[in-house]
C-alpha cells in the first residue's frame, strides 16, 4: 500500500495536470520518484512535460525506461512515445510508431481517436491527403468530447481543400453537416430595442490570430483605419498576446482576450457588449470560435478573410467575398451564408515592415529562369507537379526553387519527393530550401513564382508580388481557388500571368519565361503598382467595407443609417483620390444631381473612358455655373472631349466657334508698336513640364536663331525638372501659374512681343481666356491642341499639308500656317534601348499594341481591332494607359469588351509607367486609334522600332498619323477606311521579314526624316514668322 505522502503527491499531481502547471508537475513527479524510483505516473508525467516543452529527446530517454519497466503494450506509453517522435524533426512523417498503437488490444474510443489523430497529422504533412482525410473521419467518429468533435470536423473540412479533384457540391454538402453539431444549442434573442436607431454601429472581430500571423496582414486596415465617427470596434482575441496584439489593442475601442474562456461565456461576453455586427475571421481554421458564432451572440454575423469557404452554420448571415473570387450569382448556391460582395478585393494587404526591396530579376545575371513557390508543400498535389514539370520541360536550363518548413524533416521530405517523382517531377532541377523568418530574401533568387491550385497562395502571393516577383496563377471555379486571380486583377498590368486552363497556365509561364525584359520590368514595377491598387489602399478598403456594414445594418433594422452630406462628399473625394471613378460617380449621383459636381462627374467619366458622358457633363457644368471662368473652362473641356469621338468636321467647327460667346465683354488690348531689335516670339503653355508636349516643342527652344529672335516663355504650370531644361534655353521666363487672367494678359502685353504662340489651347484651364484680351498683335495656336480654336483673338493655326488638306481650309476659323513637311518635330528621350528585331521572331506569336489614351478607344476602334485579332491566330493586344491604374476603369473596359463579344483573354490592360518606352520593344505592330490618332504615342512607337497602322480621317486629330507616316515615307501603313486598316495590319503580320526590318531600321529612318530635323524645322517656322509679320505690315 502507498503511504500518505504518495497519496497526497498523486492528488496534487492530478490537480497540477488539470491546470497544465508544468513546473509543478515536474516538482511533484520528482518527489514521487525519490520515494518510488520506477513510478509509472511520475515517469509518464515528466515525459509529457518534456514533450510539451519541445524536449523530445529527453522524453525519449524516459520512454525507453518506461518500456523496459512496463513493456510496449501500454497504450499511454506508446502513444506519447509516438507523439514525441511526431514532434521530432528527424522522425516526423514516420507512421510506423503510430501503427504499433493499433496492435495494442482493447483500445477505448478515446485511444482510437487519439491514434487516428496522429495518423492524420503525419499524412497531411507528407501530402497524403486522401489518407489524412480517412483518419480525419475516424477522429470525428470516435470523438467522445463535443468540443473535440467540433475541432476534428473543422479540421476535416479544411483538409478537403487540398484535394485537386473535389467538387464544389461535395464541399458544400460536407460543410452543411457541420451545423448539425449545434442543433441543441440555444441562440440569443435580439430585440429591436437593443439595436434600433443609433449614431454608431458596433463591430466585433473575433479571431485566434490577433498576433504575429498571416491573417493580421489582411485585417490590419479593419482595426486601425475604421471611421470612428460612425463605427466602434471591439476585438475578441483567442490567442497569447505579443507586440502585434498590443499594437492592435491600442487602435480599437475595446479588447477582450477570450483564450481559455468557454464558448458559452465568450458568447455571453459578446452579447453583453451589445455588438451589432460580429465578424469571425477564422472560419474552419485552427482555434476558431464557430461554436461561439453558433449561439448567435450578435444580430448580424459575418465570416471571411481567414477561411475560404462557407462555414455551414445557419447562425452565420454573410460571407465576405469580392466580384473576382465569386462572380455574382455563380457560387451563391455553395454558401449557407449570403455573399457580401466587395467591389474590389476583399483582401486588404498590409506589408510587414522590412528592409527587403525589389531588385533586378535574377535571370539577367544567371542567364536561366528560376521558377519558385513558397506555398506549403501540402498544397502541391500531383496535378500541380505535372503542370510545373511541363513548364520546366519547355524552358531549357530553368530551375524550380521550393521553400517550406518540411524541408528540414528528412522523413517527410523523402516521402514528398517520392510522391512528386512518381507524378513526373525531375528532382535534379529542383532546389529545396528550409523555411526561415527572413524568407523574403529568397525572392531575389526567383524570377517567376508559380501558384498552387486549386488551393492557391494568399499571403505568399501578396508577399511575392510585393517583392516584385510575378505570379502565374490559375483562375479556379470556387471562391478559395480564385485568390490569385482576384489579387492580380486588383493590381492590374499583369493579365499575362492569369491562366484560364492548365494548358494556358503552362503557356503563360513559358511565354513570360522567354521574355527576360518583361520579367525584369515586373520586378521593378510590381511593388509600386500594388501600393497604388485597392489591395493596399486601406482607406479605400475600409470605405467599401463600412459601406457594406451600413447596407446590411439598414436591411436588418429597416432604419436608414444617417451619413451627413459632408461625409458623403468626403467619401467621394477618397474614391477620386483612389481613382475609383465609378464609385465616386455613384456617390455624386446620390447628392440629388447637385450641379456643383457636374465637372467632378465629367472627370470621373473621363477616368472611366466614357468620353460621351464626360462631354455631356462638361457641357452641363458650363451651362449650370455663373462664374465665367468656370463656364469657359468646362466648355473647353467639352470641346476637347468632342474630338475623341466626333468625326464631323462641320459639327466640330460649329461647336468650337460657339466658344466665342464667353468673351463678348472682353476688350482686346491695344497693339503696341514694335521697336525691337529682334523679333520677339513668346510661347505660352500649361505643359512646360513632364508632358507629351515636351517632345514636340524642343526644337523651338534648342535651335532658334538667337541673332534674329528673342524667345520668352510664359509658364502656367507648377515647375518640375523638365521645366528647368526649358528655362535654361530661352531668353526670358515668366511663371504666371498663380497670376489672375487679366493681370497675366497685361504682363504679356507690356512685354511688347511680336508673336504669341499658344501651345495648350483648350487642354488648359485659362490660357485662352488670357489670349482673348489679344495681348499680342499676332497670336497663333497649334501643336498642343489638334482642333479648331474658335476664338477670334487667334489669328493663325500651325499645321501641314497632311494635317490640313486644302479642301478643309474653307471650314476652319483660323488661317492656316502650313509647314512644307511636318507640323511635328519630335525629340526623343535620351538613352533609350534600340530594337534588335521584331519580338514575334522569338515568340512565335504577334503582339499588337496601343499606348493611346483610353478615351481615344471607341467601340468602333475595339471592333476593328477585334477583326485583326480574329484574323491573326494566337495574337494578343496590349493596351497601356495611365487610366488603367484604376480598377474601376479596367472593370468598365472589360464590360465593354464583353458587350462587344471580344475575347478579354487576348487583350492585356496595363497602366502607364516610367518604363513605358521600353515596353514598346515587346510590341510587334502598333495599332493607331481613330478618329483621334496618336501623336506622341505614334512617334514613340516608331522611334522604338514599332510600325504603326493608322486610319486617316477629316479632322486635325484624325490626320496626325497621316502626317507622321508620310514624313517617314511610310504611306503604305496609312489606311483610307476600316476595311483597308484591317487588311494592312494583316498584310504586315504576314510579312514578318518586313516587320523585322522595320524594327531594326525605323529609328534611323526617323532620325533622318523631317520629323526629327530640329534645325530645318525651326528655320522653316522662323521663315513663317517673318512672312506673317511682313504680311501684317502690308495689311496695315
From TrEMBL:
Q: Where is the O-GlcNAc transferase C-terminal domain?
A: 186-347, 363-545, 672-825, 844-1021
Q: Which domain of life is it from?
A: Bacteria
Alphabetical list of SUPFAM superfamilies matching this protein = TPR-like
Q: In which pathway does it act?
A: Protein modification; protein glycosylation
Q: Which UniProt keywords apply?
A: Glycosyltransferase, Repeat, TPR repeat, Transferase
InterPro entries from the UniProt entry: Glycosyltr_41/O-GlcNAc_trsf, OGT/SEC/SPY_C, TPR-like_helical_dom_sf
Q: Which GO terms describe its molecular function?
A: glycosyltransferase activity
Name this protein carries in UniProt: Putative O-linked N-acetylglucosamine transferase (SPINDLY family)
Q: Which organism was this protein described from?
A: Pectinatus brassicae
Amino acid at each position: 500500500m502507498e503511504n500518505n505522502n504518495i497519496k497526497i503527491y498523486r492528488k496534487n499531481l492530478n490537480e497540477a495536470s488539470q491546470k497544465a502547471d508544468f513546473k509543478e508537475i515536474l516538482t511533484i513527479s520528482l518527489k514521487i520518484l525519490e520515494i518510488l524510483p520506477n513510478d509509472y505516473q511520475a515517469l509518464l508525467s515528466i515525459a509529457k512535460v518534456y514533450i510539451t516543452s519541445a524536449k523530445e529527446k529527453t522524453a525519449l530517454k524516459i520512454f525507453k525506461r518506461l518500456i523496459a519497466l512496463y513493456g510496449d503494450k501500454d497504450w499511454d506509453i506508446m502513444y506519447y512515445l509516438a507523439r514525441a517522435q511526431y514532434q521530432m524533426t528527424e522522425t516526423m512523417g514516420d507512421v510506423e510508431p503510430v501503427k504499433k498503437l493499433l496492435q495494442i488490444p482493447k483500445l477505448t474510443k478515446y485511444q482510437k481517436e487519439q491514434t487516428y489523430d496522429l495518423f492524420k497529422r503525419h499524412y497531411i504533412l507528407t501530402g497524403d491527403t486522401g489518407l489524412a482525410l480517412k483518419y480525419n473521419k475516424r477522429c470525428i467518429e470516435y470523438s467522445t468530447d463535443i468540443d473535440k468533435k467540433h475541432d476534428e470536423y473543422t479540421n476535416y473540412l479544411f483538409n478537403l481543400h487540398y484535394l485537386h479533384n473535389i467538387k464544389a457540391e461535395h464541399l458544400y454538402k460536407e460543410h452543411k453537416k457541420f451545423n448539425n453539431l449545434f442543433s441543441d444549442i440555444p441562440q440569443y434573442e435580439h430585440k429591436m430595442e437593443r439595436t434600433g436607431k443609433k449614431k454608431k454601429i458596433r463591430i466585433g472581430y473575433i479571431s485566434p490570430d490577433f498576433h504575429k500571423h498571416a491573417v493580421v496582414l489582411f485585417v490590419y486596415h479593419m482595426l486601425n483605419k475604421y471611421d470612428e465617427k460612425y463605427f466602434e470596434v471591439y476585438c475578441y482575441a483567442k490567442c497569447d498576446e505579443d507586440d502585434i496584439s498590443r499594437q492592435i489593442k491600442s487602435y480599437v475601442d475595446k479588447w477582450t482576450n477570450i483564450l481559455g474562456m468557454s464558448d458559452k461565456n465568450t458568447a455571453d461576453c459578446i452579447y453583453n457588449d451589445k455588438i451589432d455586427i460580429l465578424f469571425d475571421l477564422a472560419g474552419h481554421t485552427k482555434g476558431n470560435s464557430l461554436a461561439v458564432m453558433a449561439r448567435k451572440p450578435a444580430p448580424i454575423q459575418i465570416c471571411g478573410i481567414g477561411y475560404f469557404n462557407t462555414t455551414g452554420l445557419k447562425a452565420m448571415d454573410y460571407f465576405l467575398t469580392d466580384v473576382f473570387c465569386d462572380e455574382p450569382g455563380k457560387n451563391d448556391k455553395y454558401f449557407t451564408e449570403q455573399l457580401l460582395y466587395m467591389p474590389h478585393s476583399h483582401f486588404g494587404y498590409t506589408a510587414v515592415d522590412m528592409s527587403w526591396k525589389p531588385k533586378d530579376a535574377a535571370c539577367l545575371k544567371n542567364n536561366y529562369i528560376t521558377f519558385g513557390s513558397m506555398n506549403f508543400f501540402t498544397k502541391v498535389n500531383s496535378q500541380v507537379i505535372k503542370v510545373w514539370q511541363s513548364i520546366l520541360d519547355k524552358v531549357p536550363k530553368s530551375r524550380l526553387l521550393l521553400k517550406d518548413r518540411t524541408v528540414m524533416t528528412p522523413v517527410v521530405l523523402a516521402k514528398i519527393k517520392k510522391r512528386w517523382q512518381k507524378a513526373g517531377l525531375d528532382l535534379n532541377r529542383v532546389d529545396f530550401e528550409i523555411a526561415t523568418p527572413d524568407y523574403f530574401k529568397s525572392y531575389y533568387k526567383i524570377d517567376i513564382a508559380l501558384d498552387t491550385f486549386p488551393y492557391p497562395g494568399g499571403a505568399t502571393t501578396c508577399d511575392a508580388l510585393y517583392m516584385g516577383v510575378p505570379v502565374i496563377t490559375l483562375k479556379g471555379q470556387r471562391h478559395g481557388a480564385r485568390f490569385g486571380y482576384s489579387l492580380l486583377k486588383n493590381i492590374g498590368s499583369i493579365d499575362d500571368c492569369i491562366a484560364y486552363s492548365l494548358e494556358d497556365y503552362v503557356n503563360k509561364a513559358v511565354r513570360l519565361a522567354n521574355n527576360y525584359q518583361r520579367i525584369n520590368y515586373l520586378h521593378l514595377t510590381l511593388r509600386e503598382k500594388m501600393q497604388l491598387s485597392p489591395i493596399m489602399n486601406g482607406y479605400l478598403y475600409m470605405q467599401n467595407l463600412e459601406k457594406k456594414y451600413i447596407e446590411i445594418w439598414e436591411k436588418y433594422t429597416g432604419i436608414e443609417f444617417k451619413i451627413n452630406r459632408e461625409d458623403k462628399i468626403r467619401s467621394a473625394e477618397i474614391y477620386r483620390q483612389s481613382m475609383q471613378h465609378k464609385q465616386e460617380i455613384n456617390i455624386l449621383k446620390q447628392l440629388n444631381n447637385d450641379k456643383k459636381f457636374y465637372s467632378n462627374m465629367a472627370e470621373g467619366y473621363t477616368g472611366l473612358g466614357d468620353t460621351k458622358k464626360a462631354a455631356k457633363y462638361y457641357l452641363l457644368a458650363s451651362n449650370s455655373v455663373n462664374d465665367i471662368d468656370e463656364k469657359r473652362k468646362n466648355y473647353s473641356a467639352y470641346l476637347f472631349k468632342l474630338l475623341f469621338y466626333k468625326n464631323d468636321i462641320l459639327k466640330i467647327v460649329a461647336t468650337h466657334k460657339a466658344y466665342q460667346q464667353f468673351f463678348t465683354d472682353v476688350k482686346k488690348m491695344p497693339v503696341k508698336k514694335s521697336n525691337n531689335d529682334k523679333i520677339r516670339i513668346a510661347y505660352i503653355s500649361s505643359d512646360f513640364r513632364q508632358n507629351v508636349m515636351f517632345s514636340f516643342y524642343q526644337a523651338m527652344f534648342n535651335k532658334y536663331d538667337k541673332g534674329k529672335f528673342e524667345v520668352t516663355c510664359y509658364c502656367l504650370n507648377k515647375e518640375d525638372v523638365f521645366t528647368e531644361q526649358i528655362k535654361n534655353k530661352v531668353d526670358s521666363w515668366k511663371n504666371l501659374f498663380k497670376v489672375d487672367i487679366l493681370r497675366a494678359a497685361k504682363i504679356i502685353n507690356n512685354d511688347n512681343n511680336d508673336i504669341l504662340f499658344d501651345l495648350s489651347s483648350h487642354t488648359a484651364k485659362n490660357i485662352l481666356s488670357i489670349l482673348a484680351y489679344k495681348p499680342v498683335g499676332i497670336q497663333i495656336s497649334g501643336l498642343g491642341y489638334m482642333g479648331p480654336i474658335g476664338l477670334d483673338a487667334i489669328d493663325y493655326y500651325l499645321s501641314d499639308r497632311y494635317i490640313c488638306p486644302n479642301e478643309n481650309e474653307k471650314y476652319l476659323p483660323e488661317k492656316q500656317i502650313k509647314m512644307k513637311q511636318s507640323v511635328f518635330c519630335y525629340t526623343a528621350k535620351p538613352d533609350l534601348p534600340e530594337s534588335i528585331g521584331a519580338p514575334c521572331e522569338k515568340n512565335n506569336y504577334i503582339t499588337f499594341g496601343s499606348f493611346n489614351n483610353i478615351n481615344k478607344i471607341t467601340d468602333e476602334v475595339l471592333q476593328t481591332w477585334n477583326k485583326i485579332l480574329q484574323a491573326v491566330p494566337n495574337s494578343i493586344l496590349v493596351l497601356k494607359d495611365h487610366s488603367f491604374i484604376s480598377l474601376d476603369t479596367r472593370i468598365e473596359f472589360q464590360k465593354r469588351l464583353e458587350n462587344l463579344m471580344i475575347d478579354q483573354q487576348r487583350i492585356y490592360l496595363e497602366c502607364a509607367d516610367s518604363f513605358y518606352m521600353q515596353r514598346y520593344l515587346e510590341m510587334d505592330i502598333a495599332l493607331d486609334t481613330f478618329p483621334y490618332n496618336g501623336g506622341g504615342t505614334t512617334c514613340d512607337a516608331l522611334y522604338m522600332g514599332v510600325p504603326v497602322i493608322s486610319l486617316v480621317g477629316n479632322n486635325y486629330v484624325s490626320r496626325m498619323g497621316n502626317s507622321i507616316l508620310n514624313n517617314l515615307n511610310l504611306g503604305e501603313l496609312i489606311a483610307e477606311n476600316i476595311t483597308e486598316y484591317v487588311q494592312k495590319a494583316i498584310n504586315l503580320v504576314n510579312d514578318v521579314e518586313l516587320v523585322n526590318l522595320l524594327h531594326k531600321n525605323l529609328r534611323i529612318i526617323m532620325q533622318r526624316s523631317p520629323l526629327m530635323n530640329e534645325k530645318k524645322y525651326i528655320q522653316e517656322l522662323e521663315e513663317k514668322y517673318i512672312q506673317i509679320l511682313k504680311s501684317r505690315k502690308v495689311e496695315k
